[in-house]
Design goal:
This protein has nine helices and no strands. By secondary structure, the chain is mainly α. The chain is globular and about 65 Å long. The protein starts with a helix and ends with a helix. The protein has three domains: 103 residues, no CATH class; 80 residues, no CATH class; 75 residues.
């Protein structure tokens, strides 16, 4: 009974029920995420087109042009991401109370995301320097050892800092408070991380079990094995991506709750 109550009152479950009770707002979040993905696809096509159009034959000149185009490309992506995430945060805020939407602070939100990107890009350069001095046989293990906490902290920092910002904190204060919550208040977000770990373990075991089952049932028919494996792989990827997106969607609400408590 105690375990059941703990699960029922957990942050993730409360966030899930909050999302479930507001299907229209969740639908708008999904729509804006889809629009962001569509814009990414369009920008990738345009980026490739302009890179070929503006390419300069001279090696030195083409290198500088490539760097400039890359910086501009990623800046445009960051601005697009900031725009859509800013709108999504308003939908999340509306789950907790009435809101009055305005683009008044969108430029500062872009600054916040540039700050977070710059901090973690600098850390990535340090990691790259460390890996370059390690033997190739050990490099993959060191990479995983560094990459997992790096990506986890980046994910937490971005979401908590953005939620704090949308609750009227400045860009600089949002990052400082976000990092403080991450390193001094693990209890507040450990459920969101545990859910992701359990998700990874569940789908890892599911895919391994599914692969073993297919091999067992089709051990005497190699062509059937290839056909089933191809279909199961596509279905598994779709299920994985949908489930991962649902968890990320629910976690956004959880992060906003965490920020709301820690502001």
């Amino acid at each position: 009974m105690k375990i059941k109550n703990s699960i029922k009152n957990s942050l993730f479950i409360r966030s899930f029920y909050l999302a479930k009770s507001n299907p229209n707002k969740i639908g708008l979040m999904i729509l804006f995420d889809a629009m962001f993905l569509a814009s990414l696809f369009a920008m990738s096509k345009l980026g490739t087109y302009f890179a070929q159009l503006l390419f300069v034959p001279q090696p030195s000149a083409s290198l500088y042009m490539l760097i400039i185009l890359t910086l501009i490309y990623y800046l445009i992506i960051l601005i697009a991401y900031s725009f859509f995430k800013y709108c999504v945060l308003d939908f999340i805020k509306s789950l907790f109370g009435s809101t009055s939407f305005s683009f008044r602070r969108l430029d500062q939100f872009c600054v916040l995301n540039i700050m977070i990107s710059a901090i973690f890009f600098a850390i990535m350069l340090v990691f790259n320097a460390i890996l370059s001095g390690i033997k190739e046989s050990f490099a993959p293990f060191i990479f995983v050892f560094l990459a997992v906490p790096y990506l986890l902290i980046l994910y937490l920092t971005a979401n908590i800092s953005q939620s704090l910002f949308y609750q009227e904190s400045s860009a600089k204060i949002s990052v400082k408070k976000g990092l403080k919550i991450i390193f001094t208040n693990i209890k507040s977000y450990r459920e969101t991380i545990l859910i992701m770990i359990l998700f990874a373990l569940f789908f890892g075991l599911l895919f391994l079990g599914g692969g073993y089952l297919i091999r067992t049932l089709t051990s005497k028919n190699y062509s059937l094995y290839l056909a089933l494996y191809s279909y199961s792989k596509k279905i598994s990827i779709i299920i994985f991506e949908v489930a991962l997106y649902v968890i990320i969607l629910i976690n956004r609400i959880s992060f906003y709750s965490i920020a709301n408590q820690g502001k």
